[in-house]
Structure formats: structure tokens, C-alpha cells
Amino acid sequence: xxxxxESSFSAAKYTRxxxxxxxxxxxxxxxxxxxxxxxxALIYYLNPEWEWENGGLLVDMEDDNERYAPEFNS
Length: 74
What we know:
It is built from no helices and four strands. With about 70 residues, it is an all-beta fold. It has a two-stranded antiparallel ribbon. A two-stranded antiparallel sheet has the order 3-4. A hairpin with a 2-residue loop joins strand 1 (about 30) and strand 2 (about 35).
């Protein structure tokens, strides 16, 4: 996508009672003596029957804690 940058990809599956603490998505990583950080982060929701009680909101801590609900195929 951005040929001038080093590419790195990862994926995660969160199930019942899994969570992550508030964090910075920069994801600093040391490669060959240089420090790299993420320029793009994205989330792809694959949960067709999500309900508010399930939790899982994305909270943008830099934008007045705006909350985004998981929506299938988004």
C-alpha cells in the first residue's frame, strides 16, 4: 500500500472475556537497528450478531472518547 514504508501485518481474534488495555496503535518495533512505527491501523469486524451487551467498542481516546460500535463487515 505504501511502498516507501516497511510493511508489517498482524491479526487477532477476541472472544468472550478477552480485552485489551487502552494503548497507542503506533506499535514501535526495532528492525535491523532502526525503530519503526505504524502509520496505518485498521479494524475489520466479522461479528454478524453483535449486541451492545457484548462490549467491544472502539474508543478513540484522542477524540473526546468517541465510541464506535462493531458493525459486521465494516
